[in-house]
Amino acid sequence: MKKQRKLDCFGAKRLSDLLALPGVGLVLLGGYLWQWSGKGGWIALVAAGTALLIAGLIVGWLGIVCPRCGAPLYQFPRLPRRMPAHCPRCGEAVQKEQ
Ligand SMILES: [Zn+2]
Predict the structure, then answer these.
(1) What's the 61 CA to ligand 1 centre distance in angstroms?
(2) Which among 84, 91, 88 has a CA at the least distance from the CA of 13?
(3) Distance from the CA of 10 to the center of ligand 1, in angstroms?
């Protein structure tokens, strides 16, 4: 049995990227195919990509927070490309668990 672990800010960032990056790709691909083919059905791809992107953003907004005080480690609504070294509110060092 695996021990259930709370999603830490690094895990949340990974999951957020995992959802949002393919989401952006799908939106671009769907938009391109839509324009190129003129078929409205491709909007389903755009919608799926948008849903993934939003899911990734929500995971990031909820999960990328200081492990000590819970302050967001980003400037809303933008998510960080790299995790900051310290929490902007309490100054806690944000480090990967060993
Ligand atoms: Zn903090």
Answers:
(1) 15
(2) 84
(3) 15
pLDDT in tens, the chain (98 residues): 555 556 689 999 999 999 999 999 999 999 999 999 999 999 999 999 999 999 999 999 999 999 889 999 999 989 988 899 999 999 999 887 65
CA distance 44 to 12: 27
CA–CA distance, 49 with 40 (Å, rounded to integer): 15
Cross-strand pairs, 65: 72
91 CA to middle of ligand 1, Å?
6
AA letter at 94: V
